[in-house]
């Protein structure tokens, strides 16, 4: 937790997030929706589908804003008008809870995920992470990852590569992206030959191949907590969060490669 909290102290990080927050505040007044959901970028495809199904069932429209979890958390700290927050890491939710910015009683673990290594193209041969020298495999290429000290996918990826003894050689070769979907795009476009993303991200992109899955023991569990934002449209946000825990929504998440926590 200390590593990503330290990232908040970076002037560049703060200025960038502050600017994003102001842009969001300017756009928010134009939205015509029952609630606004701030959600980790990796949830986009599945959550888009779940929100559409919710609208079909209830007639309630949901505005969805996707970015890296630290960016979204910072916007909430700045007062952006979010009603529900879905983070890809418990640490960012913990931070908002400590500051009284979420309704702690509404907080639930919504989703689970797996961390995988992907390569550009289709039908790429698999790698054995226990024996492969990833730095050597990259050659002059780069390993695409979300920000390794701030964004959950990057934090998990750095932890996994460290546990496997690969990080010292790979660190100079990492191309850091603002969020996990941006890292995915680098690999899909061929700008980076390999990348570390979630299993659900890899399933959403036809231009990449999963060549290895990281051992779950190599990094903390990938858990997505969700909570109602304090001061927002709490009743509507609770209703949508309840729907996301319904069997219908959970089927959507499973189809997109997520896991769902047990009771």
Give a structural overview.
The two termini are 26 Å apart. This protein has twelve helices and ten strands. The relative contact order is 0.20. Residues 1-32 have low confidence and may be disordered. It has helices at 2-7, 11-28, 44-58, 69-77, 90-98, 134-138, 152-163, 167-170, 180-188, 199-204, 234-244, 247-255, and strands at 35-40, 62-67, 84-86, 108-113, 115-120, 143-146, 174-177, 194-198, 208-213, 222-228. Helices cover 43% and strands 20% of the residues.
Quickly describe the structure.
This protein has 263 residues and is an alpha/beta fold. It is 43% helix and 20% strand.
Cα gyration radius (Å) = 18 Å
Mean pLDDT: 89
pLDDT < 50 stretches = 1-32
* Count of runs of 4 or more consecutive helical residues: 12
Q: What is the 3D shape?
A: globular
Order of helices and strands: HHEHEHEHEEHEHHEHEHEEHH
Q: SS-based structural class? A: alpha/beta
Write the topology of this structure.
Layout: H1 2-7, H2 11-28, E1 35-40, H3 44-58, E2 62-67, H4 69-77, E3 84-86, H5 90-98, E4 108-113, E5 115-120, H6 134-138, E6 143-146, H7 152-163, H8 167-170, E7 174-177, H9 180-188, E8 194-198, H10 199-204, E9 208-213, E10 222-228, H11 234-244, H12 247-255
Parallel strand pairs: 1-2, 1-3, 6-7, 6-8
Antiparallel strand pairs: 3-10, 4-10, 5-8, 5-9
Helix pairs in contact: 2-4, 3-12, 4-5
